[in-house]
Protein backbone atom coordinates (compact mmCIF):
# COMPACT_ATOMS: atom_id res chain seq x y z
CA UNK A 1 0.00 0.00 0.00
CA UNK A 2 1.35 3.43 -0.94
CA UNK A 3 2.42 5.64 1.95
CA UNK A 4 0.31 8.76 2.38
CA UNK A 5 2.36 11.93 2.80
CA UNK A 6 2.00 15.69 2.98
CA UNK A 7 5.07 17.40 1.53
CA UNK A 8 5.71 20.71 3.32
CA UNK A 9 8.34 22.51 1.29
CA UNK A 10 9.96 25.76 0.12
CA UNK A 11 11.01 25.13 -3.52
CA UNK A 12 14.09 25.41 -3.88
CA UNK A 13 16.08 23.28 -6.31
CA UNK A 14 16.28 20.25 -4.04
CA UNK A 15 12.61 20.61 -3.03
CA UNK A 16 11.84 20.44 -6.74
CA UNK A 17 13.41 16.98 -6.88
CA UNK A 18 11.56 15.96 -3.71
CA UNK A 19 8.25 16.95 -5.35
CA UNK A 20 9.17 14.93 -8.44
CA UNK A 21 10.02 11.82 -6.44
CA UNK A 22 6.93 12.08 -4.21
CA UNK A 23 4.67 12.50 -7.23
CA UNK A 24 6.18 9.87 -9.52
CA UNK A 25 7.04 6.92 -7.27
CA UNK A 26 4.19 4.42 -6.87
CA UNK A 27 5.16 3.74 -3.24
CA UNK A 28 4.04 7.28 -2.32
CA UNK A 29 0.53 8.77 -2.28
CA UNK A 30 1.02 12.54 -2.27
CA UNK A 31 -2.00 13.96 -0.45
CA UNK A 32 -0.92 17.55 -0.91
CA UNK A 33 1.89 20.07 -1.10
CA UNK A 34 2.11 22.87 1.45
CA UNK A 35 4.53 25.76 1.20
CA UNK A 36 6.55 27.67 3.77
CA UNK A 37 8.77 30.73 3.47
CA UNK A 38 12.37 29.56 3.61
CA UNK A 39 14.65 29.26 0.60
CA UNK A 40 12.81 32.29 -0.70
CA UNK A 41 9.80 34.33 0.36
CA UNK A 42 6.45 32.59 0.59
CA UNK A 43 5.04 34.12 -2.58
CA UNK A 44 8.05 32.98 -4.59
CA UNK A 45 8.25 29.41 -3.27
CA UNK A 46 4.49 28.97 -3.63
CA UNK A 47 4.69 30.12 -7.25
CA UNK A 48 7.55 27.67 -7.76
CA UNK A 49 5.51 24.80 -6.29
CA UNK A 50 2.64 25.64 -8.63
CA UNK A 51 4.95 25.70 -11.65
CA UNK A 52 6.58 22.43 -10.63
CA UNK A 53 3.14 20.83 -10.43
CA UNK A 54 2.63 21.81 -14.07
CA UNK A 55 6.11 20.65 -15.06
CA UNK A 56 5.51 17.21 -13.56
CA UNK A 57 1.83 16.82 -14.50
CA UNK A 58 0.69 16.68 -10.87
CA UNK A 59 -3.03 16.56 -11.58
CA UNK A 60 -5.34 16.64 -8.58
CA UNK A 61 -2.67 17.35 -5.97
CA UNK A 62 -3.72 20.37 -3.86
CA UNK A 63 -1.17 23.10 -3.15
CA UNK A 64 -1.70 25.30 -0.09
CA UNK A 65 0.35 28.32 0.94
CA UNK A 66 1.43 28.48 4.56
CA UNK A 67 3.30 30.74 6.96
CA UNK A 68 5.30 33.58 5.44
CA UNK A 69 7.72 34.05 8.34
CA UNK A 70 9.24 32.23 11.31
CA UNK A 71 7.49 32.28 14.69
CA UNK A 72 9.83 34.87 16.21
CA UNK A 73 12.63 35.55 13.73
CA UNK A 74 12.88 37.75 10.63
CA UNK A 75 12.66 36.29 7.13
CA UNK A 76 16.14 35.38 5.85
CA UNK A 77 16.02 33.58 2.47
CA UNK A 78 18.82 31.44 1.02
CA UNK A 79 19.28 33.49 -2.15
CA UNK A 80 22.95 32.51 -2.49
CA UNK A 81 21.99 28.89 -3.02
CA UNK A 82 18.66 29.26 -4.83
CA UNK A 83 18.72 32.67 -6.53
CA UNK A 84 16.24 35.52 -6.47
CA UNK A 85 13.35 33.39 -7.71
CA UNK A 86 14.16 30.40 -5.52
CA UNK A 87 14.46 28.33 -8.72
CA UNK A 88 16.96 30.25 -10.80
CA UNK A 89 18.47 28.47 -13.80
CA UNK A 90 15.33 26.98 -15.39
CA UNK A 91 12.39 28.23 -17.44
CA UNK A 92 9.19 27.59 -15.49
CA UNK A 93 5.87 26.70 -17.12
CA UNK A 94 2.56 28.30 -16.22
CA UNK A 95 1.61 27.70 -12.59
CA UNK A 96 -1.02 25.17 -11.60
CA UNK A 97 -3.92 26.54 -9.53
CA UNK A 98 -3.39 27.35 -5.87
CA UNK A 99 -5.90 25.73 -3.53
CA UNK A 100 -7.93 27.86 -1.15
CA UNK A 101 -7.24 27.71 2.56
CA UNK A 102 -4.12 27.98 4.69
CA UNK A 103 -1.54 25.20 4.72
CA UNK A 104 -1.81 24.78 8.49
CA UNK A 105 -5.54 24.11 8.23
CA UNK A 106 -5.00 21.70 5.32
CA UNK A 107 -2.43 19.77 7.37
CA UNK A 108 -4.76 19.53 10.36
CA UNK A 109 -7.85 18.62 8.33
CA UNK A 110 -6.05 15.99 6.28
CA UNK A 111 -4.62 14.27 9.35
CA UNK A 112 -7.93 14.35 11.19
CA UNK A 113 -9.89 13.06 8.18
CA UNK A 114 -7.60 10.07 7.56
CA UNK A 115 -7.30 7.00 9.74
CA UNK A 116 -4.85 7.40 12.63
CA UNK A 117 -1.34 6.24 11.82
CA UNK A 118 -1.69 6.60 8.06
CA UNK A 119 -0.38 10.10 7.24
CA UNK A 120 3.32 10.98 7.30
CA UNK A 121 4.49 14.59 7.41
CA UNK A 122 7.51 15.35 5.23
CA UNK A 123 8.79 18.87 5.93
CA UNK A 124 11.75 19.90 3.79
CA UNK A 125 11.84 23.56 4.81
CA UNK A 126 11.59 25.45 8.09
CA UNK A 127 9.18 23.80 10.53
CA UNK A 128 6.85 26.74 11.10
CA UNK A 129 3.76 25.21 9.46
CA UNK A 130 4.16 21.97 11.39
CA UNK A 131 4.66 23.76 14.71
CA UNK A 132 1.63 25.96 14.08
CA UNK A 133 -0.49 22.90 13.24
CA UNK A 134 0.53 21.22 16.49
CA UNK A 135 -0.28 24.32 18.51
CA UNK A 136 -3.65 24.80 16.81
CA UNK A 137 -4.70 21.14 16.99
CA UNK A 138 -2.61 19.04 19.41
CA UNK A 139 -4.61 15.89 18.60
CA UNK A 140 -2.72 15.50 15.32
CA UNK A 141 0.38 14.30 17.21
CA UNK A 142 -1.23 10.98 18.14
CA UNK A 143 -2.69 10.53 14.65
CA UNK A 144 0.43 11.19 12.54
CA UNK A 145 2.30 8.05 11.51
CA UNK A 146 5.70 9.77 11.59
CA UNK A 147 7.56 12.96 10.73
CA UNK A 148 10.43 12.62 8.26
CA UNK A 149 12.13 15.98 7.98
CA UNK A 150 15.06 17.46 6.13
CA UNK A 151 16.96 19.61 8.55
CA UNK A 152 19.61 19.66 11.21
CA UNK A 153 22.69 17.55 11.49
CA UNK A 154 24.56 15.60 14.12
CA UNK A 155 28.07 16.77 13.24
CA UNK A 156 27.56 19.28 10.43
CA UNK A 157 26.21 22.81 10.00
CA UNK A 158 25.78 25.15 7.05
CA UNK A 159 24.57 28.28 8.89
CA UNK A 160 27.19 28.99 11.49
CA UNK A 161 29.39 26.24 12.91
CA UNK A 162 26.67 23.80 14.01
CA UNK A 163 23.27 24.87 12.61
CA UNK A 164 21.55 23.78 9.41
CA UNK A 165 19.50 26.32 7.44
CA UNK A 166 15.98 24.95 7.96
CA UNK A 167 16.40 24.63 11.73
CA UNK A 168 18.35 27.88 12.01
CA UNK A 169 15.59 29.76 10.16
CA UNK A 170 12.99 28.93 12.81
CA UNK A 171 14.58 27.16 15.79
CA UNK A 172 11.58 27.85 18.03
CA UNK A 173 9.31 25.99 15.61
CA UNK A 174 11.85 23.17 15.36
CA UNK A 175 11.99 22.84 19.14
CA UNK A 176 8.20 22.49 19.27
CA UNK A 177 8.26 19.77 16.60
CA UNK A 178 11.16 17.80 18.07
CA UNK A 179 9.67 17.86 21.56
CA UNK A 180 6.35 16.33 20.56
CA UNK A 181 6.30 12.54 21.13
CA UNK A 182 5.59 11.51 17.53
CA UNK A 183 8.25 9.43 15.70
CA UNK A 184 10.79 11.71 14.00
CA UNK A 185 13.46 10.86 11.46
CA UNK A 186 15.93 13.73 11.07
CA UNK A 187 17.43 13.58 7.59
CA UNK A 188 20.19 16.08 8.21
CA UNK A 189 23.39 17.24 6.60
CA UNK A 190 25.35 14.17 7.73
CA UNK A 191 23.20 12.21 5.29
CA UNK A 192 22.31 14.73 2.60
CA UNK A 193 25.90 15.80 1.98
CA UNK A 194 26.30 12.29 0.58
CA UNK A 195 23.54 12.90 -2.01
CA UNK A 196 25.75 14.71 -4.49
CA UNK A 197 24.63 15.42 -8.05
CA UNK A 198 27.88 14.26 -9.63
CA UNK A 199 28.81 14.21 -13.30
CA UNK A 200 27.96 10.51 -13.38
CA UNK A 201 24.48 11.25 -12.01
CA UNK A 202 23.98 14.03 -14.56
CA UNK A 203 24.96 11.65 -17.39
CA UNK A 204 22.37 9.07 -16.31
CA UNK A 205 19.70 11.77 -16.37
CA UNK A 206 20.92 13.18 -19.68
CA UNK A 207 20.83 9.69 -21.22
CA UNK A 208 17.06 9.62 -20.60
CA UNK A 209 16.51 12.64 -22.82
CA UNK A 210 13.22 14.51 -22.68
CA UNK A 211 11.86 17.72 -21.17
CA UNK A 212 11.80 16.68 -17.50
CA UNK A 213 15.34 15.33 -17.71
CA UNK A 214 16.44 18.62 -19.26
CA UNK A 215 14.59 20.53 -16.55
CA UNK A 216 16.30 18.61 -13.74
CA UNK A 217 19.68 19.05 -15.38
CA UNK A 218 18.99 22.79 -15.50
CA UNK A 219 18.29 22.75 -11.80
CA UNK A 220 21.54 20.95 -11.12
CA UNK A 221 23.60 23.26 -13.32
CA UNK A 222 22.54 26.35 -11.39
CA UNK A 223 22.69 24.57 -8.02
CA UNK A 224 26.20 23.31 -8.69
CA UNK A 225 27.57 26.78 -9.43
CA UNK A 226 25.70 28.26 -6.45
CA UNK A 227 27.11 25.66 -4.06
CA UNK A 228 30.60 26.07 -5.45
CA UNK A 229 30.42 29.80 -4.84
CA UNK A 230 28.64 29.78 -1.47
CA UNK A 231 29.94 26.64 0.27
CA UNK A 232 32.85 25.30 -1.78
CA UNK A 233 31.22 22.06 -2.95
CA UNK A 234 32.42 20.52 -6.20
CA UNK A 235 28.98 18.95 -6.69
CA UNK A 236 25.75 20.14 -5.06
CA UNK A 237 24.10 18.08 -2.32
CA UNK A 238 20.47 17.43 -3.23
CA UNK A 239 19.08 17.38 0.29
CA UNK A 240 15.32 17.20 0.27
CA UNK A 241 14.46 14.12 -1.82
CA UNK A 242 16.41 12.00 0.67
CA UNK A 243 13.34 12.20 2.93
CA UNK A 244 11.08 10.73 0.27
CA UNK A 245 13.68 8.11 -0.68
CA UNK A 246 13.74 6.95 2.95
CA UNK A 247 9.97 6.43 2.87
CA UNK A 248 10.12 4.57 -0.44
CA UNK A 249 12.91 2.26 0.72
CA UNK A 250 14.21 2.61 4.30
CA UNK A 251 17.26 0.52 3.40
CA UNK A 252 18.54 3.43 1.29
CA UNK A 253 18.92 5.61 4.41
CA UNK A 254 20.50 4.08 7.50
CA UNK A 255 19.49 5.74 10.76
CA UNK A 256 20.65 5.78 14.37
CA UNK A 257 18.18 6.13 17.22
CA UNK A 258 19.24 9.03 19.46
CA UNK A 259 17.53 11.74 21.52
CA UNK A 260 17.55 15.07 19.66
CA UNK A 261 16.68 18.55 20.90
CA UNK A 262 17.07 22.05 19.43
CA UNK A 263 19.10 24.97 20.79
CA UNK A 264 17.22 28.28 20.64
CA UNK A 265 19.49 30.45 22.80
CA UNK A 266 21.33 33.24 20.95
CA UNK A 267 24.98 32.69 20.13
CA UNK A 268 27.10 30.37 18.06
CA UNK A 269 24.97 27.29 18.86
CA UNK A 270 21.65 28.88 17.89
CA UNK A 271 19.68 26.42 15.76
CA UNK A 272 21.86 23.43 16.62
CA UNK A 273 20.20 20.02 16.66
CA UNK A 274 21.73 18.42 19.74
CA UNK A 275 21.98 14.62 19.50
CA UNK A 276 22.80 13.04 22.85
CA UNK A 277 24.70 9.84 22.11
CA UNK A 278 25.43 9.39 25.81
CA UNK A 279 21.76 9.08 26.74
CA UNK A 280 20.16 5.67 27.32
CA UNK A 281 18.07 4.38 24.43
CA UNK A 282 14.65 3.12 25.50
CA UNK A 283 11.02 3.26 24.38
CA UNK A 284 10.81 6.97 25.24
CA UNK A 285 13.33 7.92 22.54
CA UNK A 286 11.21 8.90 19.54
CA UNK A 287 13.90 10.48 17.34
CA UNK A 288 16.49 9.05 14.99
CA UNK A 289 19.18 10.60 12.82
CA UNK A 290 19.92 9.55 9.24
CA UNK A 291 23.63 8.86 8.84
CA UNK A 292 24.45 6.72 5.80
CA UNK A 293 23.09 6.89 2.23
CA UNK A 294 22.99 4.20 -0.43
CA UNK A 295 24.15 6.59 -3.16
CA UNK A 296 23.34 4.38 -6.15
CA UNK A 297 19.99 3.33 -4.73
CA UNK A 298 19.00 6.93 -4.09
CA UNK A 299 19.85 8.20 -7.54
CA UNK A 300 18.20 5.19 -9.17
CA UNK A 301 14.92 6.30 -7.57
CA UNK A 302 15.35 9.84 -8.90
CA UNK A 303 16.22 8.69 -12.43
CA UNK A 304 13.26 6.31 -12.36
CA UNK A 305 10.94 9.15 -11.28
CA UNK A 306 12.05 11.32 -14.18
CA UNK A 307 11.51 8.44 -16.59
CA UNK A 308 8.02 7.73 -15.18
CA UNK A 309 6.87 11.34 -15.53
CA UNK A 310 8.14 11.56 -19.09
CA UNK A 311 6.53 8.27 -20.09
CA UNK A 312 3.22 9.38 -18.57
CA UNK A 313 3.05 12.22 -21.08
CA UNK A 314 1.43 14.51 -18.48
CA UNK A 315 4.30 16.91 -17.85
CA UNK A 316 4.76 20.33 -19.38
CA UNK A 317 6.18 20.46 -22.91
CA UNK A 318 9.78 21.51 -23.35
CA UNK A 319 10.04 25.33 -23.24
CA UNK A 320 11.22 27.33 -26.22
CA UNK A 321 14.66 28.70 -25.26
UniProtKB/TrEMBL annotation:
Pfam families associated with the record: IU_nuc_hydro
Key word Hydrolase present: yes
The UniProt record lists the keyword Transmembrane helix: no
Every Inosine/uridine-preferring nucleoside hydrolase domain range: 5-299
Keywords: Glycosidase, Hydrolase
Protein name: Nucleoside hydrolase
Lineage: superkingdom: Bacteria
One MF term in the entry's GO annotations: hydrolase activity
Species assigned in the record: Kribbibacterium absianum
